[in-house]
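BUG: 3D viewer hangs when loading the predicted structure for this chain

Environment: internal workstation, default settings.
Expected: structure renders.
Actual: progress bar stalls at 90%.

Input used:
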Amino acid sequence: MYAETEEKPRQVADEVAERIERLILDGVLKAGQALPSERRLTEKLGVSRTALREGLKLLRAREIIHTSQGKGSFVAQISKVDAGPLMHLFNSQPRTLYDLLEVRSLLEAESARLAAIRGTEADFIMIRRRYDEMVAAQGSATDTTTHAHLDHAFHLAICEASHNPVLVHTLQSLTDLLLGSVFACVNNLYHREPEKRQIDRQHTRLFNAVTGRQAELARKAAADHVDSVRQSLSDIEQEEQRLVRATLRLEGWT
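Structure tokens produced before the viewer hung:
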């Protein structure tokens, strides 16, 4: 009898931990986000407060969540890799930017294709919100940092609609690096009117293809967008190098 009494709470705690892990994996609870109150969690999960606390204890032991005294429990940064060395390479070796854009092209193209196939109406509402926020900022004096975050949030919303947790967490683990590529795009292209108009058209094409459930068009729109950005940045770099060489010749350095 005693063994059965001990076993049941342990099984319920395992179930609680598993259900919260699924919420994290599915992106319902995001890294760094505070968990709802104990009362809210017990209501949503339909378990006792004792079972909930035992489940949270398991998650703390697995380092899935962490608790701060007086502040509550938070989802750990489980998907965030140590990007320090990569960020150093990115900053010191500009060629890394083009490698990263290649990765973005591959991952975001597949994200868009899957989003068009698997996305729910709720997903499309979120994508529209991020798209509308991005469009609303286009005609304003919004700073480049805000532009970059809005751009990144739009692409991330599409990725989340793919309903592939591994793909979502892979992209989230590269957030710092991906934002770096978006900053490069915003800083170098947004003040150039032809390039800016082209990026706006590409975002619209991607939005329409995903929400219109046109999978192949969505895949192509995402790939074409990132590939176009990569080519534009390369063209600017070559133009600047030609200007430097011409200036050096003019000044008699060669």
